Inverse folding.
């Protein structure tokens, strides 16, 4: 059900007449030549009770399209963009009952945008795979927690596939569904947060290069921070107070210190809470700024083109959007309001008419429309450094022209500037500085043997491994059986192993290990080990690149450890 009518939270009735007084006059910003200005809302038909909107290029024509979930008609409306700020009539696709949010991503790595909706009434998610021409396949259902209200997408474990994060207002937790890369998802893993979570944003809040979560909790009026681990799991939540009934959240760097900050919309106190980040995963106390009546969501972006990140809220009761223009130091100017149609339930941003300015779109719950507000300010705000027609904010290679945005390995880095274009490596690590990513650099095998690890160690990028030492068998589980105590983790073959092949050690515990190991080393992942006489053999399930830690020695008492930086191959 839509947030304004959900009895779970006993919100006051919103069925009353509103007199909306919203200015369309330019509002002066910090930069004298960058005034904030938006045109009158242009409305386009959606379904019944539109509650959330997402943007993307669904048919590959370079023009931004809309996906709108309709809470009362239980479907998603797709409106293809014409590139001039107008949209074609909606085409509807059925989803679960009572959808409340929608997100986009490439779930099956085919280069086409897919959709996922959170359906609060049917307590499930609907995944619709895109056909690349603006149409979508039938919805597939996945179970999250109780009453899933909000969904966001991202690669949480740096394995090159898109995962789902869901806020469940009924079970007071968030669910993580890891992507399999083929359009399907694993069973949900859940993490406790505050009471009635209804919005999520992703960010790196402690500067370790991993995705963290910030969750807005409606009933407990606070924010839960969950710091990400290397294997895609999360720590227990830390809590920060905000205004009354948190209803939306966004993350960005508001004071230009290189740290991620938070903006939280508060439904009853009619304000935005700004929490500046400390770079270690903690945040300063909230500072509040007044906005319109009953703000429902929050987004961040440079809306006046002055190079500073601003905040926008959609205000359900006052029928407008509020824009807080940033001063660049973590504080904001007084709110500017712009009319946005009747009962805007959320807000999203994109460039809908190709003028390199951030426009706004809101779903109007009570009028069954979506309203588009085109940015009419004098400053573009959206840079296109390489002149390829794709703004830097959305360009997967902003310094080299690539209008086709080809990304063969789906790691978010365009092929023309990817240092390993056919192997996912979103961190673009290049340890020796030769311009070729570590994921593509041939790694010399250590003289005396290739090391082996077990297959139950979550060996995706960032995972910790133990490849040698007296405790090897205890630290390396095999799904095909226990590792032999006679085997310490190295084999004596001289030929490079291949995925799907085998390795051997003769004998396992007395082959000479190398005196030293390189900083980057190829390591076999094995699921079975067999011992016949003095010969130990096993399968090659996977080969990974490990960045080794100091401390290794040829003695079994000097264990070898490291972490995975890339996956070379996997056997089927």
């Amino acid at each position: 059900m839509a947030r304004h009518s959900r009895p779970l939270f006993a919100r006051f009735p919103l069925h009353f007449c509103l007199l909306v007084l919203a200015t369309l006059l330019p509002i002066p910003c910090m930069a004298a030549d960058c005034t904030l200005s938006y045109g009158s809302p242009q409305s386009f038909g959606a379904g019944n009770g539109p509650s959330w909107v997402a943007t993307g290029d669904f048919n590959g024509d370079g023009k931004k399209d809309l996906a709108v979930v309709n809470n009362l008609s239980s479907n998603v409306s797709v409106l293809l963009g014409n590139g001039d700020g107008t949209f074609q009539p909606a085409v509807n696709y059925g989803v679960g009952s009572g959808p409340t949010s929608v997100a986009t991503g490439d779930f099956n790595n085919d280069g086409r945008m897919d959709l996922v909706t959170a359906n609060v009434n049917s307590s499930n998610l609907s995944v619709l795979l895109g056909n690349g021409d603006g149409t979508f396949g039938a919805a597939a259902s996945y179970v999250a927690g109780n009453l899933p209200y909000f969904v966001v997408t991202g690669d949480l474990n740096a394995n090159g596939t898109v995962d789902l994060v869901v806020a469940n207002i009924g079970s007071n937790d968030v669910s993580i569904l890891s992507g399999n890369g083929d359009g399907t998802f694993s069973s949900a893993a859940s993490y406790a947060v505050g009471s009635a979570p209804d919005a999520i944003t992703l960010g790196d809040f402690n500067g370790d290069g991993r995705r963290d979560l910030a969750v807005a909790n409606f009933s407990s009026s606070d924010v839960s921070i969950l710091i990400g681990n290397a294997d895609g799991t999360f720590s227990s939540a830390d809590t920060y107070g905000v205004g009354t009934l948190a209803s939306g959240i966004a993350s960005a760097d508001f004071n230009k210190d290189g740290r991620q900050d938070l903006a939280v919309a508060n439904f009853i106190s009619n304000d935005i809470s700004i929490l500046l980040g400390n770079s270690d995963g903690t945040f300063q106390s909230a500072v509040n700024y007044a906005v319109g009546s009953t703000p429902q969501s929050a987004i961040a972006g440079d809306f006046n083109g002055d190079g500073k990140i601003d905040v926008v809220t959609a205000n359900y009761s006052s029928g407008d959007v509020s824009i807080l223009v940033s001063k660049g130091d973590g504080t904001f100017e007084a709110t500017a309001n712009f009319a946005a149609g009747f009962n805007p339930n959320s807000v999203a941003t994109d460039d809908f008419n190709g003028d390199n300015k951030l426009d706004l779109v809101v779903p109007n719950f009570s009028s069954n429309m979506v309203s588009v507000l085109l940015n009419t300010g004098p400053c573009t705000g959206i840079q296109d450094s390489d002149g390829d027609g794709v703004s830097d904010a959305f360009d997967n290679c902003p310094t080299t022209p690539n209008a086709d945005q080809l990304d063969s390995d789906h790691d978010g880095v365009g092929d023309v500037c990817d240092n390993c274009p056919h192997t996912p490596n979103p961190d673009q690590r290049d340890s020796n500085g030769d311009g070729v990513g570590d994921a593509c650099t041939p790694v010399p095998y250590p003289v005396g043997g290739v090391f082996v690890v077990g297959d139950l160690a979550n060996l995706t990028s960032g995972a910790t491994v133990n490849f040698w030492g007296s405790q090897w068998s205890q630290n390396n589980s095999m799904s095909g059986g226990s590792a032999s105590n006679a085997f310490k983790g190295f084999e004596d073959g001289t030929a490079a192993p291949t995925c799907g092949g085998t390795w051997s050690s003769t004998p396992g515990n007395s082959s000479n290990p190398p005196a030293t190991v390189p900083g980057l080393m190829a390591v076999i992942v094995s699921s079975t080990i067999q011992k016949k006489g003095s010969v130990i053999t096993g399968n090659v399930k996977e080969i990974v690149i490990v960045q080794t830690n100091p401390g290794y020695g040829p003695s079994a008492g000097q264990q070898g450890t490291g972490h995975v930086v890339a996956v070379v191959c996997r056997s089927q």
Q: What stands out?
A: The chain has one helix and 37 strands.
